[in-house]
Design goal:
Layout: E1 3-7, E2 10-12, E3 18-25, E4 34-39, E5 46-51, E6 58-60, E7 68-73, E8 78-83, E9 92-98, E10 107-108, E11 112-116
Parallel strand pairs: 2-11
Antiparallel strand pairs: 1-3, 3-8, 4-5, 4-9, 5-6, 7-8, 9-10, 9-11
């Protein structure tokens, strides 16, 4: 069955870096656009970044442009989110999502907590 397993979250000081990973299985990973979302306490889930099926196109929320980089490895069936210059407002649970395509629906991972604090 479809599985998305996020890892790499943790506690980091402001200005620090983290690299999130999302390992996918149970579907043809290369055929899907993949995205990272985040949800802070009391706030709606928001789109952070997306990478196209080919990896040739990426997009970012304005709040993370220039600091975060999304990438994918279609051999390892993994999507990454490199997060640099982290700020306290980046604190959230980060979720990986397989974007709906054809008859296949969106699919979410379980999330990984990122806390930016001194």
């Amino acid at each position: 069955q479809v599985q998305l397993v996020e890892s790499g979250g943790g506690l980091v000081q402001p200005g620090g870096s983290l690299r999130l990973s999302c390992a996918a299985s149970g579907f043809t990973f290369s055929a899907y656009t993949m995205s990272w979302y985040r949800q802070a306490p009391g706030k709606e889930r928001q789109l952070v970044a997306s990478v196209s099926r080919s990896g040739g196109s990426t997009s970012y929320a304005d709040s993370v442009k220039g600091r975060f980089t999304i990438s994918r490895d279609d051999v390892k069936n993994t999507v990454f989110l490199q997060m640099n210059s982290l700020k306290p407002e980046d604190t959230a649970v980060y979720y990986c999502k397989r974007v709906a395509f054809g008859n296949s629906p969106d699919y979410w991972g379980q999330g990984t907590q990122v806390t930016v604090s001194s």
